[in-house]
Amino acid sequence: MRKVAIVGAGQSRYGEFPDKSIKELFLEAYQDMAKSVDRGYDPKRVGAAYIGNLGCGGFQLGNMSALVSEYVGLPYVHAMRIENACASGGYALVTAAMDVMAGVHDVVLAGGVEKMTDVSGLKTKYWLGVSGDTEYERLAGTTFSGLYALIAQRHMHEFGTTREHLSMVAVKNHKNGAQNPKAQFQRETTLEKAMKAPMVAAPLNLFDCCSTTDGASAVLVTSAEKAKEFTDTPIYIEGFGTASDYLAIHDRVATTTLEGTRRAADQAYKMAGVGPKDIQIAEVHDCFTIAELLAYEDLGFCEKGQAGPYLMEGHTQITGDRPVNASGGLKAKGHPIGSTGTGQAYEMFHQLRGDVQKPTRQVKGVERGLLHNVGGSGGTVVVTVLAR
Amino acid sequence: MAHVSVPMYWRTIPQRYRLVGMQCKKCGKVNFPPKGVCKYCNASSEFAEVRLSGKGKVHTFTLIGAGGAPPEFAEQEKAGGVYPVTIVELEEGPKVIGQMADVNPKDVTIGMPVRAELRRIYEEEGVVRYGFKFVPLEGGA
Ligand SMILES: [Zn+2]
Asked: What's the pTM?
């Protein structure tokens, strides 16, 4: 099968944009992507568009991929909405890769978009809840904060993970987000402030949770042999893996492991012919602080149960030996559900090429990175390995 | 907007009222809540109904505050304050999520023995929904 590369990547600003529709948000990301293609972007070459999206409050559930595609000047393509909750964007990217690998289309757009602030707070909570197990988890009175809290409590019990470990994830990611002009929250926070935030679902407080975000992202995927027609520095998709899991946490083999992450990472490493030690930089799914700690363990960056100490030793700081969420992560950069996965690809594309918009966030000399995107509390997971 | 419609709820009443589990005729393990195919052997869809004791131990828990309650439970949180939600490991093996009642949220701990009781869960679409909640087991384990 053909090797695949990313030759362009763009992202809208993430945040709250009452003046913008999903079409306009997507246009912003699309035009940013077009600008990033070194030898010029020609929309006539695009054969397919895979668009990650959860549901945008139900306004355009049907045919939304056709809508945003035609709006940006891409009518008559193989347009498809890809939905796997918060992992929709990551699945859009690997679907685009599979398409090009199979030789069906040569040039394919993968993107994502979400508009979360057009609906009332209660309706937003309704929409956030639709990706969990409805019959049992929802009826026990939980949303995702409660579900991740159940995981966090057990992780603390089994491995001695602390309040400080959780809060340090938020502090680190806000520090990075402060250097990201496209992030929702471009300000640092202190450990004290993060530890003392109001409780949402104990042990998780407000600073352990990501916010609701509007935003869009778009990447251009083509075959490795065609990549040089677009740029001298393509970013290759070396490997990817995906795995689903039992939707409800109580059905899973273990409470403190996302089995989907473990299996998706295994596949991605195998396809790329690398191991966790070869990953120099990563964007992981920190929808809650505990989720980033789980990711360290389940991706093999450290031993099971050792994520807290691993974090505290500074490995994943932007100055560490394996920076994680240099973009600010879901926590500070923002989490526009359907856009998150391709937004991670946008960050990694520029990190690996060494042309990050704001140089203070640039990690120097990195050649291989990993993307980790989780749907809901782990019902779907996608892991992608990128290299220059 | 309802999350679990009355018909959806009605179909799960055997589980919610009487904790009816499904024992796999091939591997003998108890699936609760039920699956279409046994989740332990993935090889059989023939089950015998078994009624679970409802007794078990707290495997993990959370205390849901104002920001963590879904809209349909916001009223409960407002009236009664923080409420505990647990995953309980039942004595027959399966784990299941449920709220805890008759307990000071501060006193909930992992490993705590509990038993299921039929309680009011919430009201939606004008219908009061009943189902199991866990309460501390008198006299401990
Ligand atoms: Zn079986």
From this structure: 0.96
